[in-house]
Design a protein that fits this description.
With about 425 residues, the chain is of the alpha/beta class. Helix content is about 35%, strand content about 10%.
């Protein structure tokens, strides 16, 4: 099997890596998810995990604009007090985050500061592996939400990815989540395919006009099928080759497709009451080594529009008000800017939690920009505290069973 054919097979199968292969991950469609509508406990909460691949610059996302050390370390990249969306007299959001600024004011955005892990690794791949497996101390073959899935029965539809491939975080030891193509934007439920096929078959003894109508309908279905196949093939080729209209994801990962499109699918599923308890979405392109300010603003603008539209939509229904969104990246960036008007791989950063089920505001101790480890921020909140709280408060699961006995928790962030 050649590399291209193998890659397409893996994409179609929803398989990412040996762990998911062993678990037998397979392709699913929206119809498979909608088949579970009504099966879930109406009181159950939903977790939506959004991964920003590439290492988003936390200091230019949640900006310590009043800190002289911030301004001194990156004079060309730093935002001034007049530019940021102020949260208080010291901290502001990136100017592109207008919607998140509104959600913060509404109490629906919690910002957990200084999140990281001991002995940080600046490799995209190793650090993302640590975040997705929740094992910074040693290599691990399963994802933290894959282990949760193992513990709740292993039905792939309980943990769904709308990314090109199933992320390792959804691969368990005995099961794996479902990968659903983001191109499948709407569920075609009102009229089944078998019903449409019967409409195209003439009935014995029916009038000639009806028989001709059936034949015309059969021709129309054939043309529609052909157009769909050509369009899907072209879309697959475009996805393989990449497009100029999306920021480069680079080898660090992340979906090329719109984050808003992925979250639209999540919203459809939540509103339909499907059994899924976990959804994974992503956006790539945050590896901003050069000309960072403009590129990051474009990317954060996409994140802002997608997240605020989704959170506002979820606020309109009872199932939606039980959704918690968590947004993270594999690491932040160095405090000091480099010579290319960008920043290099760093360590600690911020995690955003959104929804009706969060206590909005700033949480955790911010890292001290004057007390660095080799130019990097010292983390003040272990990311496993975040995961443990999500497992306990959103997924109703004992975190110690999933996180190798981890006992830490966030304080007062989730309701």
């Amino acid at each position: 099997m050649d590399i291209l054919t193998r890659r397409r097979f893996l994409l179609a199968s929803g398989v990412a890596g040996a762990g998911a292969l062993a678990a037998g991950a397979s392709a699913y469609g929206l119809a498979d998810l909608f088949d579970t509508a009504g099966d879930r406990d109406p009181q159950a909460r939903t977790l939506v995990l959004v991964t920003l691949y590439g290492g988003n610059d936390g200091l230019n996302t949640v900006v310590p604009y009043s800190d002289p050390a911030y301004q001194d370390a990156r004079p060309e990249l730093a935002y001034s007090a007049d530019e940021v969306r102020r949260l208080d007299d010291q901290i502001g959001l990136n100017p592109a985050l207008t919607g998140l600024h509104r959600l913060y004011g509404d109490g629906r955005l919690a910002i957990v500061r200084g999140v990281g892990y001991p002995t940080p690794d600046r490799s995209h791949f190793r650090s993302m592996d640590i975040w997705q497996t929740a094992r910074p101390d040693r290599p691990e073959q399963t994802g933290w939400l894959g282990r949760w899935l193992d513990g709740v029965g292993g039905d792939p539809r309980l943990a769904v990815s709308f990314e090109p491939t199933l992320p390792p975080l959804l691969a368990g030891a005995h099961s794996a989540g479902a990968a659903v193509p983001v191109t499948e934007r709407k569920a075609r439920r009102p009229v089944g395919d078998q019903t449409l096929a019967r409409l195209a078959v003439p009935e014995p003894g029916e009038p000639a006009g009806q028989a001709r109508a059936a034949a015309c309908f059969a021709d129309l279905r054939a043309v529609d099928t052909m157009i769909t196949e050509v369009r899907d093939a072209a879309a697959a080729e475009e996805a393989d080759e990449g497009g100029d209209d999306q920021p480069a994801a680079t080898a660090t990962g992340g979906a090329r497709g719109s984050l808003a499109a992925q979250l639209d699918l999540v919203a459809q599923c939540v509103e339909a009451g499907v059994s899924s308890r976990v959804f994974s979405a992503s956006l790539g392109g945050f590896d901003t080594h050069a000309d960072e300010k403009q590129l990051q603003a474009v990317l954060l603008g996409q994140v802002d529009k997608a997240l605020t539209g989704f959170v506002d939509r979820m606020a309109g229904t009872e199932p939606g008000r039980k959704v918690v969104v968590a947004v993270y990246s594999e690491f932040g960036r160095r405090v000091r800017a480099n010579a290319s008007d960008g920043t290099d791989h760093g360590t600690a950063s911020d995690v955003f939690l959104l929804g009706a089920g969060v206590n909005g505001g700033l949480h955790g101790e911010p890292p001290d920009l004057t007390r660095l480890d080799d130019g990097d921020l010292r983390f003040t909140t272990d990311f496993r505290d975040v995961y443990a709280s999500l497992l306990e408060r959103v997924l109703d699961t004992d975190p110690e069973q999933v996180l190798a006995g981890w006992r830490g928790r966030l304080s007062g962030v989730l309701t």
